[in-house]
From TrEMBL:
A GO molecular-function descriptor: ceramide kinase activity
Domain of life: Eukaryota
Domain DAGKc: 133-284
One protein family per Pfam: PH_CERK
Gene3D superfamilies xref list: 2.60.200.40, Probable inorganic polyphosphate/atp-NAD kinase, domain 1
InterPro entries: ATP-NAD_kinase_N, CERK_C, CERK_PH, Diacylglycerol_kinase_cat_dom, Lipid_Phosphate_FormReg, NAD/diacylglycerol_kinase_sf
Entries under SMART domains matching the protein: DAGKc (SM00046)
Gene Ontology CC annotation, any one: membrane
Protein name stated in the entry: Ceramide kinase
GO BP of this protein: ceramide metabolic process
Length: 546
């Protein structure tokens, strides 16, 4: 700090204590310079210096309202002080609390001179205006029916006031139907008017924004999404997620918590987290984009079953998970994949993707160079030779995790070391095994044991993969006792409705939506989008109240 130029420094009052306040290009600091007569002896919190990063200041403004409130609360004590120091300004800033939660805190400084007060507000605002990564205009979509149907309330009560305070202008659209946001972004929205798009809802709502935005950008640049090898144009607008759904995995994996105020603050300070997007094709026809989980078999079946029980709300996932586990289906097919280079690590290396992740940063700094190399490598691979690996087998689950997929229930996630923006996805192959073995594997998603440390689980970090189901004749249900692949479960009549062993194919769960094609081609598009997030911060420097 000493080697930074001081922009302004004054003796002001904070909570009746005389403090020296200084503004540097990157820091606002203050420390007490005169002990309060009332305070007992010994070191106190106020004697230590305080500092706030300028990039984490939300706003600075005159504190007239606050002075009035204080006077009403403590008339005698404050009256004398406010007569002496009638001018005040308040700095609103990000305060880290626990578990990655951010809050907007205030500190107010009083002074006797109006000019000094105005000068502080002016120079601080000038410093803030140099932070060009901060959004000024946002397009907000609210799903009023997501999660517990509190999206509108959450936005109006918790988010809009902080945006207003930070001087952010918003255009708000409350969606009237499914795909309203996607279609509006695709065709109508004037993207030039905004610095970012915010979705208030769950993962399904985020998927709408993703599809609307990516499709629009490709259309604007004449890129054909149906070409599996097309190099997609990255989105210039960042996406903010205000969690208000029943599943908010993408927010959790990129911020570390599902909290609307924390997300709003990450948007205000202009965080930027690149994120890989998988494009999914069937026979050279574009199907969907995915940023978190593509799951065939177990997770596909859970989703298919849960869709039948939407009336149950979030509890439907537990019920369907249990039913699907009891069914213990497996599916035959061929998985081919293009492994990633060694410099992006391995799914079992225990290097978790955190804020400022070295692997993701390296990937981006060397992206152009890397693209040239990988194009050359891929050519022979496209002919079915070279770098592609091919595995044929019977699988309980085939999962592709493009991020850890951590959520409050599974804090490590499906692939704890998956990276948000390294241009790869972790392909997890769970082969046919006993129900007990599969249970042990599932259990490890909730504790600290290595879920890949089983004879029936393979995991590969890949840049592309394909799946081709193995077609064989459908077996009528009554003939199943003779079928050699029948699992060792005697289905009860209620299970027979959901456990259709004769079905040769499952479906893909693509970020919580069902894909009706089993045969797919998947290609990872490195850092195609950016979120208003910074990844999960490693250490919490939780600060006490100022
Ligand atoms: N106004 C609307 N009416 C009905 N559906 C909507 C509306 N707006 C958005 N949707 C759809 O609602 C779905 C679920 O939304 P969202 O992800 O916000 O909530 P969720 O509770 O997490 O979802 P899920 O029920 O899938 O867990 C999305 O797929 C979205 O397309």
């Amino acid at each position: 700090m000493e080697n930074q130029t001081q922009i302004i420094c004054s003796e002001l009052f904070q909570k009746h204590r005389k403090v020296e306040v200084a503004l540097y290009p990157a820091l606002l600091t203050w420390k007490e310079i005169e002990k309060s007569r009332k305070r007992s002896s010994g070191a106190s919190e106020a004697e230590q210096g305080h500092d706030i990063k300028v990039c984490e200041i939300v706003a600075i403004h005159k504190a007239e309202d606050e002075a009035e409130t204080q006077t009403r609360k403590h008339p005698k004590r404050i009256k004398q002080h406010s007569q002496q120091y009638p001018y005040a300004f308040t700095v609103a800033y990000v305060r880290r609390t626990q578990q990655h939660l951010w809050r907007c805190s205030d500190v107010t400084f009083h002074c006797a001179d109006q000019q000094i007060c105005d000068q502080w507000i002016q120079v601080t605002n000038e410093q803030l205006s140099l932070l060009t990564n901060r959004p000024k205009n946002l397009l907000v979509y609210i799903n009023p029916y997501g999660g517990k149907r509190r999206g509108k309330h959450i936005y109006e009560q918790k988010v809009a006031p902080v945006f207003r305070r930070a001087g952010i202008f918003t255009d708000v659209i409350v969606t009237e139907r499914a795909n309203h946001a996607r279609d509006h972004l695709k065709t109508e929205a004037n993207l030039d008017d905004y610095d970012g798009v915010v979705c208030v809802g769950g993962d399904g709502m985020f998927s709408e924004i993703l599809h609307g935005l990516v499709t629009r950008i490709q259309a604007d640049h004449n890129v054909d999404q149906n070409q599996p090898d097309a190099e997609l144009v990255p989105c210039p607008l960042r996406i903010g997620i205000i969690p208000a759904g029943s599943t908010d995995c993408i927010c959790f994996a990129t911020v570390g918590t599902n909290d609307p105020v924390t997300s709003a603050l990450h948007i205000i300070v202009g965080d930027s987290q690149p994120m890989d997007v998988c494009s999914v094709h069937h026979n050279d026809v574009f199907l969907k984009y995915s940023v978190s989980l593509l799951g065939y078999g177990f997770y596909g079946d859970v989703l298919t079953d849960s869709e039948r029980n939407r009336w149950l709300g979030p509890a439907r996932y537990d019920l369907s998970g249990f039913k699907t586990f009891l069914c213990h289906n497996h599916y035959e097919g061929t998985v081919s994949f293009l492994p990633a280079e060694d410099n992006v690590g391995h799914p079992r290396d225990k290097l978790q993707c955190r804020s400022g992740c070295r692997i993701c940063q390296h990937k981006h700094s060397s992206k152009d160079e890397h693209n040239e190399v990988s194009e050359e490598k891929e050519k022979p691979a496209e002919d079915g030779e070279g770098d592609w690996s091919v595995i044929h087998g019977k699988f309980i689950a085939i999962n592709s995790a493009s991020m850890s997929c951590a959520c409050p229930r599974s804090p490590k996630g499906l692939s704890p070391s998956a990276h948000l923006a390294d241009g790869t996805t972790d392909l997890i192959l769970v082969r046919k095994c006993s129900r007990l073995d599969f249970f042990k594997h599932l259990l490890r998603h909730t504790n600290n044991d290595d879920q890949f440390d089983h004879w029936f689980v393979d995991v590969h970090r890949v840049r592309k993969f394909r799946f081709q189901p193995w077609h064989h004749e459908l077996v009528p249900l009554e003939d199943q006792s003779e079928h050699p692949e029948k699992p060792d479960l005697s289905p009860t009549s209620s299970l027979q409705e959901t456990c259709d062993y004769s079905t040769a194919e499952s479906s893909w769960n693509c970020d919580g939506e069902i894909l009706h094609h089993a045969a797919i081609q998947v290609s990872v598009q490195c850092g195609l989008i950016r979120l208003f997030a910074r990844g999960i911060e490693e250490q919490q420097d939780a600060e006490g109240a100022v």
